[in-house]
Amino acid sequence: MSETTRHPLARAVLTGALVSVFGLGLGITPVHADKLDDKKDQIEQQIQGSEEDLEDLNSTLAAAAKKLKEYQDKLPAAQQRLAAAEAAVTTARSKVEALQARLSEAQASRTELSEARAKRAQRGTDAQAMVGQIAANAYRTGGASSVSGNLDVLFSGEDPQVVAGSLEIASRVMQAQNKTIGTLREQQAQDANDAARLKAVEEQIADLKSQAEQALAQQKSARDTAQAAKDEVDKILADTASAQGTLKDQIADVQGKLEQQKKDQADVNAQIKERQERLKREAEARAKKAAAEAAAKRKAAQAAAKKKAANAAKLAAEADAAETNASAAKDDATPSGSYNESSWGLIVPADPAGYITSGYGWRPTPAGTIDYGGAGGYVHAGLDWGFGGRCGLPIKAAAAGTVEWAGWKGTHGQIVSIDHKITKGHALTTNYNHMSRVAVRVGQKVKQGQVIGYVGTTGNSTGCHLHFETVVDGSTVNPARLLH
Q: What is the annotated signal peptide range for this record (predicted)?
């Protein structure tokens, strides 16, 4: 159980060292972002934008792929239409070729018939001219009487050779005339037959031309349909290829930008890392320097604390000697500077079951408490009462007075301070530390023996106890001198 009295210089040195150390720790990261940080933020925003663009393009590419799938699903039907149209073109072309062949044959037949008729017509004209010539000659020689005249010559008894020659001539003339007339009749019959054939051929030609025109129209329609089907297939393939090519180009462009941005990001991060390492090295150097300075100050404070403790021990010894001498005097008048129980009248503030565990004066720092001065000990400024480790026992006012502090006070824990005003010409204050709970308030008037709080172990304490101090004219004195 203990109470530590902090030396102001030691506390200041410790606080300064802590501030220096923690302050140096904060120095690793700059308070304000520099240009590298701004550039890093800018690149990160650019990367985020590029990644969003890439995501959008990938979504668009997926949509295009879906559209391509739809086109590809339509492609077999379009190809079937194209194949059907091409087959129709082939059929129509074959039909046109067949009709054109038949038309050529019919036209050749027509030409042949026309030429035959022309030849027959010429022969008929020649035959008619011959018959006319025979008739004309007969007319000039007496017509039919020339024949009978020839018969008269035959039977007149003239020269038989002359008669025979005349008969032969007459017979040949009759044969020629009859042959010519027969030929004309045959030609007329053939002409009538050829005219009928030619009419049929002309009708066939007209029909074939009509069929050929229809076949050509069908061929043109089939060709147009096939071309439309082919154009549709070509357009589907071209559109999808163009869309995919454009998207892939855009994706490649964005990926290139993203790659460059990530490279820039890596460069900036490397620069920031180098800067942080440099700041860390500088901070560590400052920390080492501050630690060395703090160690030097702490060493000086320890020396000062030891010196002060030695002076305090010397003063305490001198005070004890003076008090002993003063008590031995038989003079009934008590000097104003002496502190004996008859003049101060303080009562023990602790329960009678308590016992003193630590006296007033220099002592080593107890285990479990903080050695603030670093000297390994300090001046214990009061008396400690222990109660076998029990907390909660009542604490009483050693004398009547006014409460000037009631509550928490740093390492003292819960504390009550009572101002007893001027007693025997001296300002007197009593302090009751490490309470578990206070029972009075600031400004309250208390009587001697009144319960002001309860034993505890708050603050810098190692167990349940009461630390009691007496402060005379601003300095602590041994409470044992002022108690009954």
A: none
